[in-house]
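Data availability (excerpt). All sequences and predicted C-alpha cell strings are deposited with the supplementary files. A representative entry, DSBA oxidoreductase, is shown inline so that the format can be inspected without opening the archive.
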Amino acid sequence: MNDAKLIFGVIGGSLLLLIVVALGMSRMTGDQMGGEVKEISGEERLVMGAEDAKVEVVEFSDFQCPACKAAQGLVKQVQNREGVRFVFRHMPLSSIHKNALIAAEAAEAAHDQGKFWEYHDLLFERQGEWAEEKEIEVKLSDYAEELGLDREMFVESLEEGRHKELVMNDYGEAMRLGVRGTPTFFVNGKQTAVGDLLRAVEAELAE
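C-alpha cell line:
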C-alpha cells in the first residue's frame, strides 16, 4: 500500500511539474512575442474599423487552416470592439493546404465586388466542404453566386489569376516579419499569441 501511494505521489508530482512548466513556457512565449514593435508594410486593403482607431490588429491567415477557422470567434470579438481597426492579410500555406491559394484569390475576387468579409466568413464556415475539393474553382464560384456576386466576372478573375500577386505579396511580408504559422496576429505592431489577443487589445485601448 505504501509503495502504491509512493508511485501515485511521484506520478502526481511529475504531472503537476509538467503543467507548471507548460504554463510558464506559454507565458514566456506570449511575453516575448509581444515585446518588439514591427513595421508592417504593404497595402492594407481588407480592413474593418476607422483609420484613426487607437488599436490596429493585423492578422495573417490561411482560409484552409483549421486553427484559423477555430479562431474566428475571437476574431469577431476583436473586430466588433470599439476603437479597433482590423486588417486581414493572406498567408496561404500551399505546401500543406492545396486549395489555400486559390481560396485567397477568390476572396480577393469577392472584394472586387464589395463582399470580401461575407466571402471570408463563408469560406471559414464551409471549410470542410471545399478544403479537399478537386473542382475547387466551381465550388468557389458557387459560393460567389450564393452571395449575389456576378459569377462571370468572378470566374474571369480566377482564370486570369488576377489577384495572385496581391496574395503572394502578403505572404512575402509575412515571411519578412518572421511569421511561421497561421493565424498570426500583430497588435499595434507587436506579435501576439492567439491566447493573449484580447488581453493585448484591452491593454492597448487602456493606455
